[in-house]
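Bench log, entry 3. Co-assembly request; chain sequences pasted below exactly as received.
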Amino acid sequence: MKIRSQVSMVFHLDKCIGCHTCSLACKNIWTDRQGAEYMWWNNVETKPGVGFPTLWEDQEKYNGGWELKNAGKEPRLNLKLQNRLQALGNLFSNPSMPTMSEYYEPWTYKYEDLINSPLGDDQPIARAISRIDGKPIDIETGPNWDDDLGGSNIYAVNDPLLKNMSEEEKRRLFSIEQLFYFYVPRICNHCLNAACVAACPSGAIYKRAEDGIVLVNQDKCRGWRMCVSGCPYKKTYYNWSTGKSEKCILCYPRLETGQAPACFHSCVGRIRYLGVLLYDADQVETAVEVPDEQLVQRQREMILDPFDPQVIAAAEESGIPAGVIEAAQQSPVYRYVKEWELALPLHPEFRTLPMLFYVPPLLPVISSTQESGAQRTESDLFSSLESARVPVRFMSHMLSAGNDAPVIKAYQRMIAVRLYKRAETVGDVSNEEAAAALTKAGMSAGDAEAIYRLTSLPTHQQRFVIPPSSRESAIEQVQDPQQHKAETGFGRRQAPHRGL
Amino acid sequence: MLETILFIVFPYLAVILGVVGIIYRYRTDQFSLTSLSSQFLETDLQFWGSTLWHYGIIPTLLIHLGGFTLPRVMAALHSTPETLYLAELAGKVMGIMALVGAAALLYRRLSSSRIRAITTPMDWIVLVLLFTQVFLGMTIAFSYRWGATWFIHTVTPWVGSLSVFQPQTKYVTALPWIPKLHFLNGFLLFALVPYSRLVHIINFPLTYLWRRYQLVIWARRKAS
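Structure output for the full assembly:
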């Protein structure tokens, strides 16, 4: 058994208020440079919606991720993008590459016009100009252009997830009483079977063995942009100025100095959790060679119990420091993903084994079962989960490759926790009802209490259990993280510039 | 005197500038080793221009290289009229592909304001020189036909004499000025490789064909 550690993440979608503070924290630190203005290493999307870049989930359009052939016997996993020979043939023009129109043209305003305009009858205005060629542009799209437009007949109806639903289900989803939307914050998933790593012809993208962060070596990147096409989440971006690809670095200069990544640290709703998971690296290949409906389960299986003496022994043998094993035991991610089975990977059917997990939002499910706008917390919420079939299916196509069971299980537990706390603190739910809910969800009162505490009242240290980085293996630890801003996170002394 | 400068001094100078420059740039500035793709900003013309250009020019360059290094093999390959016709036809098709591609790329750089915004003077120099080079090559192909055979008796011995440091200009001095210009422009382009975006030609990622898909790197340990 070859055990590795992975810094993993959980986003609790019920707590996300869609304020975009995370996006701005990231932007201010890493991507406020020429060529990177359009990049959002962290972005927050409204679902149902088209996302950023437009329709990124539609792999018939972008050809990202992996494709499983012969699922039954002799499974073969290929990049959906191209085979190795095709990769060499496509070097000169990448056929599946999103262009600027799928993101947006970055712009600024001509502020000097406000001051330099000659005296006249009209108020001077600052016109929008392109940050590429400096010409005036009409802004037609931008980041989060579909923000909060969950019922929009321009954006939301084009959500790629809806193509899995029947006309009747779509009609129900978009009827005015049933409208819902929720937010999905996204960063790089730091996948175990990353498609960007596999697609890179020059081998510039790699996974750091110590913590599993996926990085682009800026000196080895040759700007072929196959990672942009290969990543099904479209979380690698091409810097049009330097001619190199860039992506979320999980703020590794901060992690190495014991700080949470900027988007985690700044999260207003405190939806984000970060911790170490130990996993069996030998299972990476087999875990993705199973039919869609088993993907979530297989991914959970390869995540190992950090309290198991056998696992601890094997981890020590694989060279994982004691401090990291200890961090894995305290990891909130382990509890959400494996112990409680509340958190699910985003689009596991892309078969990249993403290591960012989402707790599905309860709100759209509950609101879709309400007759009026009034909040109702009686125990029939439980049976109502079945009547909320449409939003549940929407979630399962997003978080468990169309398999409803793991999503329903997570919801049952979340509802049971609510009933349990309701019985305890408000008293309009009887203890028997709460106990029945807990039994049906398969957990004890202790579990419910623990879920409640980690969900509602976690401290900073409980949310972010950052593994200690060993001084002998951490290269950047001794440097000031602020210094990395000038180095744009790539450890370079000179500011990156366009080549000759 | 002029012949010595043009056909001995200049080629040596160009090769030294090119080789030393490539080594220096590879060792000191890996970050700049990229083709600086602008497909992100404009993709339609880029597809036609870049694809036609590269699929035309790479085989053409390899065949030129074959003419220098394996003249006997090349001569044997078009020893019969049929194969000579075929070689001539293939060369012209690839040349026209490259020419059309280069023209499309020139037009693209002129017409798109986004592309113009990220174009450097050296981009223009390189693109114009490349277009000129292919244009001269096609002029030779159409007006001085059967280059596949006379190449081996003129250019090959001249380049061979340069490569063994016993330079002889007599093989090429009698040629018309268009082929001469083609040779000189070729050496000029070679000299420009490390000082322009042409440096990307050293990047061809052949190892991708057999490398492992997933790369895991330890800071202090060998990859496992």
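The two ends of chain B are 61 Å apart (CA to CA). Chain B touches chain A through 52 residues (CB under 8 Å).
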